[in-house]
Each structure stands twice: as structure tokens, then as C-alpha cells.
């Protein structure tokens, strides 16, 4: 797991992306959260290995993805050659068997503890589209852009990253996307170890909600619910109330389960909260506050529409 300076890495990514494509990129994930909370504190680092770049809107994603990937490859960025699908495909290759665009910066020792890479994703084509891959043809062959149903939430009303001419996801929107993605604790584990342990993906992503809430350190999280309502009504106009009513299910399950909550705590202490650790009970308190302030307020909005 790389330990990186959010401001430094975001500046590198912004400089590498072609200027004409920066308006189509939203940085999400640990880098976005770390930049938001630590951009004025150089002593704070984020432990992450991937920099997720969401391309939007969908109709511009393939063109922007082709332009960005071409410029980075020509500038010496190195493809990440791990996983089941490494080699570029062709027009006959099923889209879900194509490799994702994952690129290391030029000259980086990919085995180094400090190595990080960017990955290109895209928002869904519509509110009805779930997890899906989109074909990305390049001179080297065909690649794929993955999307997940709630990436549209992360790209909703993004924030400008200082004077870098690139945008990043609002922390509260990343929290909502993770809540919606995990209405229950599923048994599937992450593809690689997290700080030496096998971790359920649901616990890692719901733990991200707790880490964001801890770093936000608000007296009242109810304003999040109002922002969440706007995002849901915009991105999912036909089912926003159902989504609002289920948003807290996974978090409640996490707070009830000692083993799952401890896994989430482990990911927080070795991820976003590595620079300012706290006790397990303090993290639990943050979860209960988000649940009582933001989630229950969002559920009230959903109930009022029924």
C-alpha cells in the first residue's frame, strides 16, 4: 500500500491529463478524500495504490479515455500487467474480458512501496444501467472502461482542485455512493490483501464512510442528507425514494457486527485515518452520528414521498 502526498499526486495527475480532457475527469477515492481534508497539511499522507479517474458525461467518456490514454502511453506511462485480463483484445473479445486502463507514471519502480497508478472508469450511460464495461479501442488493441451503478453519485457536483484545472468528488458524495453500493455485508473479499489481511469489500467501502465522517468532524451531519437528496433526485429520478430508504441498511449491519466492524476499523487505520488514528469506539461513535443525523434524515425524505 503506497503512502502518498495527496496534493503532490493530484498535481501530477492533473499535469498529465490533456487540458482538453480535464473537464471530463473527476478524481474519486482515497486520493480525492485525502486532498479535500489534507491539502493544506503536507505532513499528512494517504495510503493508497490506485488513483481512480471517472470520465463523464458518458457520451464523452470513450473519446476522452482514448485521448488521455494515448497521451500517457506516449509520455512513457507504464501499463499495469496484473490480473486475469492483461493483454489488449480486439473487436471479437467480449467487453468484460478486456483489460482496464491502469497506468504507472514514467520511471516508477512498480514494485516500490510508493508506486501508484491511475485507473480510468466511466459513469453509467443511464440511471437504469448497473455494473458494466465499455469498449475503448486504441492502436494497441481494445481496453475496457468499467462502471459501477453509483459512480454517477460520486461525479455529482464535484469540487475544483485549487488551480489544478481538475475536479474531485465531494467526500459526502463518495460516502453516499458507498452506502448505496453496500446495503448488506457481502462475503466477497478484496482481490488483494489490505495491510496484511483479507478484508470483505463491503467492510472496506463502508469503513470509508466512517473515515470520511471522522475527517469531516461536523457538529451536525444533517446537511449531508440534503445534499444526498439532491444527488439522488438528479441521478435516479424514478427511484430516489427507494434508494433513500435503503441507504442505511449496510451501515446498520456493520455497526451491529463486531467482526465486520473490526475489519472496517483495520482499513481505516491503515488507509484514510493512518495519519490521525483513533480508537475503535471513537470510530463507532462517528458511525452512529452519521446514522442518526444524515441517514435517518434521508430516510425521512424518502418516507415523505411515499
Amino acid at each position: 500500500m503506497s503512502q502518498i502526498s495527496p496534493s503532490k499526486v493530484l498535481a501530477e495527475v492533473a499535469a498529465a491529463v490533456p487540458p482538453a480532457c480535464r473537464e471530463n475527469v473527476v478524481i474519486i477515492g482515497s486520493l480525492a478524500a485525502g486532498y479535500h481534508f489534507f491539502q493544506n497539511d503536507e505532513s499528512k499522507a494517504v495510503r493508497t495504490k490506485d488513483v481512480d479517474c471517472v470520465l463523464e458525461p458518458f457520451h464523452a467518456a470513450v473519446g476522452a479515455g482514448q485521448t488521455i490514454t494515448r497521451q500517457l502511453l506516449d509520455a512513457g506511462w507504464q501499463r499495469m500487467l496484473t490480473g486475469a485480463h492483461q493483454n489488449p483484445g480486439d473487436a471479437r473479445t467480449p467487453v468484460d474480458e478486456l483489460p482496464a486502463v491502469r497506468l504507472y507514471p514514467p520511471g516508477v519502480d512498480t514494485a516500490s512501496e510508493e508506486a501508484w497508478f491511475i485507473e480510468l472508469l466511466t459513469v453509467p450511460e443511464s440511471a437504469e444501467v448497473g455494473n458494466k464495461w465499455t469498449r475503448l479501442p486504441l492502436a494497441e488493441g481494445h481496453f475496457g472502461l468499467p462502471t459501477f451503478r453509483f459512480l454517477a453519485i460520486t461525479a455529482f457536483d464535484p469540487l475544483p482542485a485549487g488551480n489544478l484545472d481538475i475536479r474531485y468528488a465531494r467526500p459526502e458524495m463518495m460516502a453516499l455512493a458507498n452506502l448505496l453500493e453496500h446495503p448488506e455485508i457481502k462475503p466477497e473479499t478484496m482481490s488483494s490483501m489490505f495491510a496484511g489481511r483479507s478484508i470483505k469489500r463491503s467492510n472496506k467501502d463502508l469503513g470509508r464512510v466512517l473515515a470520511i465522517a471522522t475527517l469531516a468532524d461536523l457538529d451536525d451531519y444533517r446537511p449531508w442528507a440534503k445534499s444526498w437528496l439532491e444527488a439522488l433526485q438528479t441521478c435516479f429520478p424514478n427511484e430516489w425514494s427507494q434508494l433513500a430508504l435503503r441507504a442505511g441498511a449496510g451501515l446498520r449491519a456493520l455497526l451491529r457486527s463486531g467482526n465486520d466492524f473490526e475489519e472496517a476499523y483495520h482499513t481505516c487505520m491503515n488507509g484514510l485515518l493512518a495519519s490521525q488514528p483513533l480508537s475503535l469506539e471513537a470510530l463507532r461513535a462517528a458511525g452512529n452520528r452519521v446514522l442518526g443525523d444524515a441517514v435517518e434524515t434521508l430516510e425521512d425524505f424518502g418516507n415523505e414521498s411515499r
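The two ends are 45 Å apart (CA to CA). The domain at 3-153 is CATH 3.30.460.10 (Beta Polymerase; domain 2).
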